[in-house]
Design brief:
11 helices, three-stranded antiparallel sheet
Amino acid sequence: MFSVLRPFLFKLDPETAHDLAVKSLKFNPFPSKMFEVADEQMLNIELLGKSFPNPIGLAAGFDKSAEVYNSLLKLGFGFVEVGTVTPLKQYGNPKPRIFRLEDDRALINRLGFNNEGMEIIKDRIKSEKKKGILGVNIGPNKETKDQKNDFCLGLKNFFDVADYITINISSPNTKGLRDFHDQKKLIDLIITLNKIKKDNETDIPLLLKISPDLNNSHIPEIAEAAIRNNVSAIILTNTTNGNRDHLISELKKEEGGLSGDPLHQISTNIIKKFYKELNSKIPIIGVGGVNSGKSAYEKIIAGASLLQLYTSFVYRGPFVAKDIKKELIQILKVEGIKNIKEAVGAGL
């Protein structure tokens, strides 16, 4: 069905097509049984104090204001992350701000954290009871005078409704945000957030989402800061500002974060480096170019326990999670692996 609709959708502006997809999902059109696969128990994994039915998650960026997360969970995803959510509602950057690089199986976006703000989004999550594992990705408003305080507000707002909270310090579209990759600034942020957790007597897992454009020298520093300050998991990686030279599309020079196939090897290499530094003390969620069982397996054996995708959802449609699960299970059987957790880091 998607293959029939795709030519029509791809004639639309990418953001218009996205808005249409969100509106369609509000009707909750698909029965969840359509997205079940045989032997999915091979993909079950315990992490962050939760039992994930499979490791394939939908990354933040699709359901920015938590409008359709339950419908997305029905599409066979093991978990869904909404956001990025900022304290105040904001429009984001001027349009156009999403670009399809079809020849490269990629996207460039410079959305700029467009969302309805944390109060509306929290009320929505409270009223639409989650039917699976839900993460909330938080960040600062563009015009804020105190980015750290915006993160604090996000944590205080969502700790009692989310299964985990992602601290997004890595979007290329918010000025100054990636400065938090500096070890001193990062430690100060995490300590402050941990104090909020303690004051509110919550054990909500805190995850860090990292840029693919960081200097290699920052990897051991970030890993050390995460281990010493009880970060629950690291998401590797966000979109990249670079890697444009070998792209085919004429849109490759558009400003913004690049995602999709061109990010796959970059993020997989960073996963390998972090996995060695973290020494199994903190799990990794791998993101970037996950579009098949093969690409998913490559990230898992590089050290990722869970995965997220976004761009392949745009290109492959609502059955992408089901297809990847089937392909991944087949790979596990060929390799003689009984459960996905046995494969984590097996390629190193």
